[in-house]
Amino acid sequence: MPGIYIHIPFCKQKCTYCDFHFSTTFESYRERMMHCIVNELIHRKESIQNNVIKTIYFGGGTPSLLTENELKIIIETIYSHFLVNDTAEITLEANPDDIDLEKVEMWAHSGINRLSIGLQSFNPSVMKWMNRAHTVEQSLSCIPTAQKAGIKNISIDLIYGLPDLTIADWENEIDTALQLGVQHISAYCLTIEEKTALASWVKSKKINAPSNEIQALQFEVLQQKLKNAGFDHYEISNFGLPDFYSKHNSSYWKGEAYLGVGPSAHSFDGKYRSWNIANNTQYMKGIESEDPAYDFELLTPENRFNELLLVGLRTQWGVDLQQLSYILPLPTVFNTTLSDFITKGWISQNESRIRLTNEGKSWADKIAQDLFVL
Asked: Tens digits of per-residue pLDDT, 334-349?
């Protein structure tokens, strides 16, 4: 059990593209929510037994809205009830407008040793339609501030494939990020999720959805520029300097077990996947009544086969065919489809391990889906 994920369901405002679970009106029950998250941690410690925790990840939502006392209570609860590795990676997701020297020093003093900063863009017009709360100036200043406070492991998020984003614009975004001296970049292609403001704008023609061709070209630009800068492309959307991969997220991609607490948080123990209800009120009522509101599923061999394939192919480590065959015998159609992808140059094979080629990375989801067992 390498990791614990804590979902903080608070945000200042809603971004137009976001479909994560959070609330912007949380002050009236803020203390109650913190109490419930702490209680859930305590009540679920038996699920981890004596496993050593290697990573702790504060996600959301916007965990950088936590007060010093709230953060301290959660971290102290984890250290009091779990075995935590002395060199554990402890990540806090933060927005640029929440970052100042005093706050980052407080985070570092609390044990945070890695920041994941949601920059998304350095373009003021893009940030405006995204409804981001921070300014370009805050994006540019927050990283030097975090570095000054002693945080030496900093990741930033960027989004490409945006409406009207040109190749030159995207190159400028990447160059600006590299000039800031970060160790890790997570770059996501814009997806238009249902029930978001962005989906409504695209449907009404207020904004034009970018073409697949432009998005693919921007992905290629991203790969080349970051490779030239010394970053390893270790997962489809993630690039890190050597020794600065996200240990927490890598455990997900390798199919390792983890515990998730807070509303909407997911957990996985190797056989069962569970997820808390994505409703703050019902989540708190469930914790307080000692009848938590969650769902779970026992993963079938087909589920485990497909998940290992889908997630593994997205990483530089690829997938071990022997490991797949321990779950299910490889079907004839699987071997035939795999041979076709190798012939196309989308997959390479070294002994029993298969990996996506650079060309294949542009088709990662399609390749995995075509190899799924039904």
From this structure: 999 999 999 999 999 9
> Is residue 10 assigned to a domain?
yes
183 lies in the same domain as 309: no
Whether the CB-CB separation of 324 and 353 falls below 8 Å is answered with no
Above 80 in pLDDT, residue 238?
A: yes
312 in the same domain as 239: no
SS3 percent helix, strand, coil of the chain, rounded to 5, is 45, 20, 35
Q: Is the peptide bond before 318 cis (omega within 30 degrees of 0)?
A: no
Domain coverage including residue 36: 3-253
How many whole angstroms separate alpha carbon 146 and alpha carbon 152? 8
Region 8-18: mean pLDDT is 76
**Strand pairing class (83-94; 114-120):** parallel
Q: Of 278, 248, 254, which is closest to residue 266 (Cα–Cα)?
A: 278
Residues 239 and 321 in one domain: no
* Phi, psi at 202, each rounded to 5°: -65, -40
Strand, helix or coil at 119? strand
Q: What CATH number is given to the structural domain containing 182?
A: 3.20.20.70
